[in-house]
Amino acid sequence: MGYLNNQVVTVDAILTKKGREAMAKNDGSFQITQFSLADDEIDYTLYNPTHPKGTSFYGEAIDNMPLLEAFPDETQIMKYQLTTLPRGTAKLPVLNLGYSAITLKQGASLAITPQTLSYLGNDQTFEGSGYSATISDVRLLGTYSGLGINSTAALNANTNTTVTIGTNVSKTIIGTQINLRATTVNTLFGTNTTLSSTLTVVGLDSGARLTIPITITKTN
Amino acid sequence: MSFKRLETDDFVVSSDSITSTLWSTGVQTLTTFFTSSVQKAGSSGNFYLSVYEADTLINTQFDIVYANSTGLGSAYYDATVIGKTPTLSSYGQYRALILEDENKSFNFGTGDNVHTATDFFVISVERSRYKESLFPGSLNLTLSGSNGEIHLTDNSKDVSVNTFIGSSKVYQLISGSNGSAGTLTNSGFVNASGSYGLVFPELGTILLNPQAISQSIHVDATRTENSTNGVSNVTLYESIALGKSFQLNSQETITSDYVFARARNSEFNYTQNPTFISGSTGEVIYSNFINNPQTYITTIGMYNDTNELLAVAKLSRPLIKDFTKEALVRVKLDF
Q: Which residues of B touch A153 (CB under 8 A)?
């Protein structure tokens, strides 16, 4: 007879850049209400379902691997979220933004309507809870807002649509349509002719995620 | 679904008292003491003397001040205004800070052995060193003079009821060790001179009674009218440096927010990890993952209502999750 391991896994959390910003703003946005799990760093090609020693050894190459410490940049972590889907799912949801990269001239606008492929038996669908879209450097956009979702969370996220102050912080909005307009501020460019960032879109029902590069081109 | 809402029961707030060594080098007892000739000669040197742990003079450990109610022991600010000196300013400063009444005086000692002082030395510990407060019972300071040494501590372990001056908790500075006079006579006080001083943990401040110290080891302040600034500060510094032993701990309250992240057996068994699928259509990489998917939890993200990632925690090694397993992870957030 052996003892069962009754220990709870305890981990120390660090604040992200966004978390520190929310705390500094003191406007109630630093309010943890939900969590998500991710398997960043895991390479499932290391999983070996043909291991000669049997099922207990399938994950041998993953089980005991050491993990890196958390990164404080919210755009560099929680990249691959775990998701809840019905058992027997053969195809995982995939996002389609209609763009593999976005290039905008200064002041130009674009509306993106994400769709989810292979979700709950549908070839192509719009998710009911909408999509969250995170720009890693909000200074690149003069306006940035979501449309189509009227939940409190979406309304709160979409309220502050114009932020081009301070340093490069991310901003998340929620909607079924994502509207963005490139900044007209010249000083951000310095001696460069383009600015680059990333746009990460996550399906709020499916957890499907897609990150594409976004480039703003200086016009004058 | 990738996000799971936390319930009220998933949050627990806990406050823990943390004590640690106070000095910047992490040592329990400071044995070497240095001062800066630049600071001493500068305008701040008229009021206080900064003491460092090393001759690199980078980290101030504490400051020494001499305060006098009549302004003795330092130079007049202006020769035409008699009596207004840095030691008088310091006295007024600590009177306002501690006594909270301009008509009160500093009394060292208790019961029938009380000395009402017109002057005192101050050891003011750097805020970043003592964090929230000095840890009572950890003070052990040795002073050395021409008549030998005295070993001083607070009397926190000899008293059962907290005493306050104004709104500040105070302990008497007595002869003894580790917060107690032990078997010493007079409860560690000096006959007819009261205690050796007062210790204010929350202020990070120790007041020393020059009369008691002088009576014991013949170290005393200079009480000359319109004299050179900072002379008495140096006197106490030299006594501390010769004593070669100053032990003190800090105390702070760490408030932690514990969040319990619970993943039920049916949840979080699939992943958006690109290595979990093959091709661009999202098919799972192994056929046995269709009915028996297996994921590995490495990261926990804490979000607000607008899906902004506020805090993140990493596990030390991957935690297996499948339809037969539930996971409970306690995430600790310190403030």
A: 305-307
Report A:101-130 residues touching B (Cβ under 8 A).
Answer: 117-118
Query: Which pTM value belongs to this model?
Result: 0.71
Do B160 and B68 fall into the same domain? yes
* B-contacting residues in A 133-192 (Cβ below 8 Å): 152-154, 156-157, 170, 172, 174
Tell me whether residue B222 is in a domain. Answer: yes
- Residue B184: count other Cβ atoms within 10 Å of its Cβ: 14
Distance from CA of A195 to the nearest CA of B (A): 23
**Residue range A58-87: mean pLDDT, rounded:** 89
The predicted pLDDT at position A168 comes to 67
Q: Is the pLDDT of residue A2 over 70?
A: no
> What pLDDT sits at residue B62?
97
**DSSP result, A134-194:** EES-GGGEEEEEEES--SHHHHHHHH------SS---EEEEESEEEEEE---SGGGTT-SE
For residue B237, give its domain range: 23-247
Element (H, E) at B68: strand B60-68
Same domain for B172 and B299?
no
Q: What is the mean pLDDT of residues B44-48?
A: 95
**Domain assignment of residue B61, yes or no:** yes
Q: Kindly state whether residues B107 and B238 are assigned to the same domain.
A: yes
For an interface test with A, give the residue of B277, B299, B315, B317 to mutate (most A CBs within 10 A).
B299
User: Last residue of a domain, which of B202, B221, B247?
Assistant: B247
Instruction: Compute the radius of gyration of chain B from its Cα atoms.
Output: 29
Residues B241 and B279 placed together within one structural domain of the fold: no
Contacts of A160 (CB under 8 A, 6+ apart): none
Q: Which of A72, A88, A202 is the closest to B291 by Cβ?
A: A88
pLDDT digit string, tens, across residues B131-162: 999 999 999 999 999 999 999 999 999 999 99
Residue B95 pLDDT grade (very low, low, confident, very high; cuts 50, 70, 90): very high
Residue closest to B99 by CA, chosen among B69, B133, B124 = B69
Q: Among candidates B280, B284, B276, B264, which has minimal Cα distance to B327? A: B264
Q: What is the ipTM of this complex?
A: 0.84
What mean pLDDT, rounded, does chain A reach?
86
pLDDT, mean of residues B43-66: 95
B93 plus B195 within the same structural domain? yes
Residue B278 pLDDT class (50, 70, 90 cuts): confident
